[in-house]
Structure prediction request, 601 residues.
Amino acid sequence: MNIYLPIAEMSESVFVLLGMGAAVGFISGLFGVGGGFLITPLLIFTGVPAPVAVGTSTAQLVASSVSGAVAQYNRNNVDIKLGVVLLGGGFLGTVIGVGVVQILRQAGQFDLFIALCYVLFLGVIGTLMMIESLQTVWKARGGVTPSMRRPGEHSWVHGLPMKMRFQRSKLYISAIPPFLIGAFVGFLAAIMGVGGGFVMVPALIYLLRVPTNVVVGTSLFQTVFVAAAATILHAGTLISVDLVLATILMIGGVIGAQFGASAGSQLKGEQLRLLLAGIVLLVCLRLGWDLVITPSEIYSLASPAGGS
Amino acid sequence: MSRRVMILLLILAAAAAGVVVPVFHEPSAFAQAPPSKAKKRAPAPPIAPPSLPPETVEADVSTRTIAVTSGYSGAEILVFGTIENSRQPSAESGFYDVVVVVEGAPEALMVRKKGRVAGLWVNTSTFNFNAVPSYYAVASTRPLEEFADATILDENGIGLDAVRMAAAADSAIRVSSEDLIAYKSAVTRLKQSASLFKRDDYGVVFTGRSLFRATIGLPATVPVGPLTARVFLFHEGKLLSRYQSRVVLEREGIERWLYAFAFERPFLNGMVAVLLALATGLLASAVFRRRIA
Prediction:
């Protein structure tokens, strides 16, 4: 049963799309990740134009992060003040990101740019995760528990001006680093359609030393609003949000996530990470492969108005 | 009495046969240029009259609106027509060749070409066309090359090799003529793979001595707007007649509405997407939490 996607301007099997949403939802439930980094490349592989893949993925991101954010908020795991600072940066980053997408799209280099971004990010993250989880598995076998990395008591972060007190996180730090982190994550959301938790969470823990119990909640809080802003900006300036596609992906995604979450509780953390690292590297290789092999068609059509 | 009746009948029969002159109406009915129907019915005239009426072709298109529904994967329109004064003995005789060309409005188009840069395939050059038909379909009774020469096809814009593509002046100056041909053939190839350019060598079928029809498939992506349907009548490589008809295509249905909504109220579209996402996310967590608890 095919369904016509009005903005992607293509006809695709509704079951393929539902399945894709469910698979990504399953993975995001299993690993506790947003899944945007998988949905965008998958949509591009299906033939959805890259800008529409990114724009629609931001809408899916809102759906997949809001329930988590509400749950964390109810458990008082969100540092609202820190979240707002992150969000301020996030909005700025989103606006810049959408502007960059528009420029690259007009120059005809957006497809290349998005592929390079994904190859770079997925390659780095996949490799790091692979190494880390292999080490953990190795050490666990040797009976040695891995020691948590503890950075120095004071870093350059603490020397910056514009200090603010974040009660919930028990921090007294400059507002500049969280603002910049937020901006970078917002930028990533706008150009890649990802929540950026993989950047935000380590940055909050290692750079700002935010207590781990509020990290996830605050990160999700920021993701919901940044993804919402990115969705509206994508739709408003690039006409790249396909409501039909978004709806199908969301339905598949939320269902898949529930099954993923229950499956995840039966697997060990390091095994999960190893598995996720494998998936991330596979997607990365597939994207990189398309850039390197000689394409069967070296020409492509576009509308001069700035279409895909 | 019976003899009188016999004579009367004889006279009547003779009159009916047209032998006897003393009848009042139009004695020269057959001698003058007759209306076409009378000619066709004439029982096999031994020699063709010196001035046969020329054949003309007329046609129309079946559909005016395409419904783009959620299950939309393309639509078909029917182009049907008739040859006035057809001289072919039957539908199968192959006396005439008919070509149907359906063309969308010309639009600007940009072609990008990839090249290898540092081992990666990157869009390296672009070429602009000011006017390329958004859609072009040609259907004929048999392959065009079999009955018409390239000149006549080119003059009339018949066939995928003769599609009118106007290059933008600034782009045309920059490239060699071979490159221009390469860009044009790339447009044809890419549009063909998107089903926006198509040829059907046996797509026109005669269903009677003068009636013919052709089915033209429109893909889901066909741009809305005016379509021109042109019909050409050939006999032994000679273009006898042509006919042109215009159709305005409209898309309707919810998907069409969503498309218009996204372009006319883009920010509202984004807000709807966000609200939809929030509702889906919250609803799902509520539903599943209740199920688990």
